[in-house]
Amino acid sequence: MTALSVNLNKIALIRNSRDTRSPDVPGHAQLCIDAGADGITVHPRPDQRHIRASDCRELAAMLTVEFNIEGNPFAGPRRSDRAGVDDYPGFLPLVRETRPAQCTLVPDGDAQLTSDHGFDLTRDGERLAPLIAELKGLGIRVSLFMDPEPAQLALAAEVGADRIELYTESYARAFATGDDSAAVLGRFRAAAEAALDAGLGVNAGHDLNLENLPSFCAAIPELLEVSIGHALTVDALRLGLAETVHAYQRALGKD
Ligand SMILES: CC(=O)[C@@H](O)[C@H](O)COP(=O)(O)O
Ligand SMILES: NCC(=O)COP(=O)(O)O
Q1: pLDDT in tens, 150-198
Q2: Which of 106, 124, 159, 233 could make an SS bond with 10 (beta carbons 3.0 to 4.6 A apart)?
């Protein structure tokens, strides 16, 4: 069955809009766990617009489910511009310190609004390989954020990744507009097969939601994990967080 990893970025985004701890990130992680979430995902960015280094440290100390930290492996340290907020230590130093079960490497620029592309391993593979080896040596499973391009996925295995995370924005957009959605889903199926043939596990994420999740999972039954945050948080405004986690588990054919 496909694991649901709840991304808490948007809980932290609301928290950061005031100088308080409310909503409390670890408390909402526990709410998700109590409701049946299989994992927790965060994406600390250098500007700490939502998830902060301190959130990662607190979550690492309390989680009883898989912890997945996503981010740009080449993101360096950055001083905090907000009183009482720790500096961002750099992505890899934060991962080394917190030792999550999984680290998903994402080729984000620091100023991007959100993650919007996968790695080009023909360009980045050589400098990623030693980082991947180091993280695996620390006992951390490594996943690479990838576009659904079969040739690239074969390279992911060559650089030592354990898994890839299919960047699903193009599927979500096609599903929402109805444009070419069957063909787009076929491209994701082909990409998943290329990853599986290369011995990689397959995760997926970005813009997945209650409506588009069942079709995606039916097309890729080998899917090991989906990480979902934006749509799930919006649904929680309507349904409540616990009920929303149950709803997503039902959409995954569980619960
Ligand atoms: C990599 C990816 O698609 C998401 O995990 C990412 O966490 C979204 O980041 P924002 O929540 O900052 O949009
Ligand atoms: N890796 C995807 C993720 O963690 C959350 O993406 P989204 O659901 O916020 O788009």
Answers
A1: 999 999 999 999 999 999 999 999 999 998 999 999 999 999 999 999 9
A2: 233
Question: Which residues are marked as active site?
Answer: 43, 70, 206
What six digits make up the tokens of 95? 């991962």
- Is this prediction's pTM over 0.90? yes
pLDDT digits (tens, 9 = 90+) for 85-94: 999 999 999 9
Q: Which long-range contacts (CB under 8 A, 24 or more apart) does 28-33 make?
A: 28/241, 29/59, 29/62, 29/63, 30/62, 31/241, 31/242, 32/6, 32/8, 32/241, 32/242, 32/245, 33/63, 33/64, 33/65
Please count the structural domains in the chain: 1
Q: Is the CB of 10 under 6 A from ligand 2?
A: no
